[in-house]
Automatic annotation (TrEMBL):
Belongs to the TonB-dependent receptor family. It is a multi-pass membrane protein. Residues 55-164 form the TonB-dependent receptor plug domain. It comes from Paeniroseomonas aquatica. Keywords: Cell outer membrane, Membrane, Receptor, Signal, TonB box, Transmembrane, Transmembrane beta strand, Transport. It is found in: Cell outer membrane. It holds the Pfam family TonB_dep_Rec_b-barrel. This is TonB-dependent receptor. InterPro entries: Beta-barrel_TonB, Beta-barrel_TonB_sf, Plug_dom, Plug_dom_sf, TonB-dep_rcpt-like. Residues 211-647 form the TonB-dependent receptor-like beta-barrel domain. PROSITE patterns: TONB_DEPENDENT_REC_3. Residues 1-24 form the signal peptide.
Length: 688
């Protein structure tokens, strides 16, 4: 039996409504109501309002994206999910291949993912060595996303420089509607159909969601086909015990257009690189995921036990044909409890994680996209042992201090079956955290904290291509101390989220490209500094413009990246190549009352392009893009939406690889990915 604070949860849900979509919200007074009885919710998947409230009690720069903001929007990639999130740099390369970076994580990584742990329902999507991509995250199946920069992801066991992003899929108990159908299409041969269905049958609940997407691509040789399926089944054994099973299947067929010189990226952006065409370069993935979360409510807290296994097959013709077949598995117990210490409220999280995987890694000569002679045959094994704890002590109802730590031991082992050689390395670490949270009002917070992070190299870092063969390089772990301070709050008609951070790094994992068709070489830098500002704010400029309950809202997102070497023997105090210093996004939204429709012009502005080399001699261009989003509800549960992008057809660089010195003799500067040109997408959503 439990007492449920319905009034508090309802008020939290009202406050969480995005300003650009909700109608006018005046002061609402509700009578106190306490219901005693069995909670109708889920132990394994709490309500979205409860998850948001728990996240925002964290004394750190954490952010929450409610999936309702995507209901009437075109969201083809994770950039569309995270575009309005401060501190998150996310840019498309082609298809659903992205650059995802927080606070300089993977700043020089020109392919896939580095330094951020991507989670789906709290379970890692990354492989056991820390590498990963984004293909199994279906934007149409995201109910919410929780962003934890840096050491703020400690309650999940993550302690990398970038932190973690948890993409939460809906359950039958958290879905906004029981059944949903979506159909979308637009320029460059883009089409997607997706659906979701769910049911609650007593103690059982089940949900299944799937999508099929196709795009010819803006550039030559960039056609893509995606099939994504996610499902979960929950069963409540008793008032105190619930288990939930997750299953997913993901098929990706993505042609690669390759990178271009700056001149071609701006002058002939739709062409593909010659090597991409001659090698029929592509990335094809077949993956299956199974996971379970079992939750037990104890007299002294709550125990969650996660277990998962993921199978991934990769066929990846690039400079060679990368042919891999891997299995990743893990188990992660976590206990959370609230109790009193000396009459003060105290929240404690204690957990551990065993996370391992093995990958058969073969490489062949590439003959127009087909295997043509074996050149490498290896086995990659990664094992991680992690234990963590975080304690939050409320000195006063409005003031808390947080202390935590993570202990880790990560083992990497590579066996070369052709030569018989075996290489291995073990990384140990202790990453502490200390923070403070002041909450003068329920919707206003001020926080500060200091954390230590450690990034362990993945196999892409350790196995570098020399003479067309993988060579083991003993890369060290990247370590950093990060200090952050900030404030966030929401009031009627306006809100803000502001964080300043500074990371002092040793051995930062940076990369440089020798040949654009070959994965870049990784090295440990000396002393470096990553610092910046993460800001998001919104304000209602007007209400009752055309009808009672409507509003006009201005929303601004600004991320400032100031990443530099410190007295480096070769690069002095130069900026680290890879990311632009300023990224701004401005949205002006007219929202009709009761969610009946909206109209939103959007500006994306990069005042200075990113440096492409550490010598700071070559950089991408500055740009300003103009877009327009609109949606209208045409009948109960039926909406139509429009997304028009880059209306001026601006030519710009969306992402790039990094070089040592672009002016050095023999330097190949074809490291730029051109951004998409003008495009228009239409869609409809039917919920019932």
């Amino acid at each position: 039996m439990s007492a449920i604070p319905w009034r508090a949860l309802l008020l939290a849900g009202i406050a969480a409504l995005p300003a650009s979509r909700a109608g006018a919200q005046g002061t609402t007074t509700l009578p106190d109501l306490v219901v005693t009885g069995r909670s109708p919710g889920s132990l394994t998947a709490p309500s979205i309002a409860a998850q948001r409230e728990a996240l925002e009690r964290t004394p750190a720069a954490v952010r929450f994206v409610d999936g309702r903001e995507l209901d009437n929007r075109y969201a083809f990639t994770l950039r569309d999910v995270l575009a309005d999130t401060p501190g998150v740099f996310v840019q498309n390369r082609y298809g659903q291949e992205l650059r995802l970076s927080m606070r300089g994580s993977g700043i020089a990584r020109g392919f896939h993912l580095r330094g951020i742990e991507v989670l789906q329902d709290g379970v890692p999507v990354n492989l056991a060595d820390g590498s990963g991509d984004f293909y199994q995250i279906d934007p149409t199946a995201v109910r919410a996303a929780a962003v934890y920069p840096g050491g703020n992801a400690l309650p999940f066991g993550s302690s990398t420089l970038g932190g973690a992003i948890n993409f939460i899929t809906p359950t039958a108990r958290t879905a906004t509607e029981q059944h949903i159908l979506r159909a979308e299409g637009g320029t460059f041969g883009t089409a997607r159909i997706s659906g979701q269905t769910s049911a609650v049958l007593g103690d059982w609940d089940a949900l299944a969601a799937g999508s099929v997407a196709h795009a010819d691509g803006w550039r030559q040789h960039s056609r893509s086909q995606y099939e994504q399926f996610n499902a979960n089944l929950g069963y409540r054994l008793s008032d105190r015990i619930e288990t939930r099973f997750y299953a997913g299947a993901y098929i990706v067929r993505q042609q690669l257009p390759g990178s271009l010189s700056l001149g071609d990226a701006l002058g002939r952006p739709r062409i593909a690189a010659a090597a991409a065409l001659s090698g029929n370069q592509a990335r094809n993935v077949w993956a299956e995921r199974f996971a379970n979360r079992t939750t037990v409510q104890l007299d002294t807290g709550q125990l969650d036990l996660d277990a998962w296994v993921t199978h991934k097959r990769l066929y990846h013709p690039i400079f060679q044909v990368i042919d891999q077949d891997g299995l990743t598995w893990g188990v992660a117990p976590r206990w959370t409890g609230r109790f009193s210490v000396g009459g003060l409220d105290n929240d404690l999280v204690v957990g551990g994680r065993y996370f391992a995987g093995t990958n058969d890694a073969l490489q062949y000569n590439n003959l127009r996209g087909s295997r043509n002679g074996l050149v490498a045959n290896g086995v990659q094994r990664a094992t991680n042992y992690q234990a963590f704890a975080e304690n939050r002590l409320w000195l006063r109802p409005t003031l808390a201090i947080v202390a935590g730590a993570k202990v880790l031991r990560d083992e990497r082992d590579y066996e070369n079956r052709l030569s018989g050689q075996r290489n291995s390395r073990t990384y140990d670490g202790l990453n502490p955290k200390l923070g403070v949270l002041w909450q003068p009002r329920p919707a206003v917070q001020v926080f500060a904290n200091v954390t230590r992070s450690q990034d362990v190299p993945d196999f892409s870092d350790q196995l570098q291509t020399v003479n067309n063969r993988p060579l083991w390089v003993p890369i060290q772990a990247q370590r950093a101390w990060t200090v952050e301070a900030g404030t966030r709050g929401r009031q009627d008609g306006y809100g803000w989220d502001l964080t300043l951070f500074r990371s002092n790094l040793r051995g930062q994992l940076l990369q440089f490209t020798v040949d654009p068709s070959i994965p870049a070489n990784t090295f440990n830098a000396g002393n470096t500094v990553n610092q910046g500002v993460e800001f998001a704010g919104h304000v209602d400029l007007a209400r009752g413009v055309a009808a009672a309950g409507d509003r006009v809202t201005l929303r601004q997102v600004w991320t400032w990246n100031d990443f530099r070497f410190r007295g480096d023997r070769q690069y002095g105090d130069n900026r680290i190549a890879g990311l632009p210093p300023h990224v701004l996004r401005t949205t002006l939204t007219y929202a009709a009352p009761e969610g009946r429709g909206f109209l939103a012009p959007v500006l994306d502005w990069v005042p200075q392009g990113a440096w492409a080399d550490y010598a700071n001699t070559l950089r991408a261009n500055a740009y300003l893009k103009v877009g327009l989003e609109a949606g209208i509800t045409v009948a109960p549960g039926v909406s139509v939406f429009l997304d028009a992008r880059n209306l001026t057809n601006k030519r710009y660089v969306s992402d790039l690889g990094t070089l040592q010195n672009a002016r050095a003799a023999g330097a190949n500067t074809a490291v730029f990915y051109p951004g998409d040109g003008r495009s228009v997408y239409l869609g409809t959503r039917i919920a019932f």
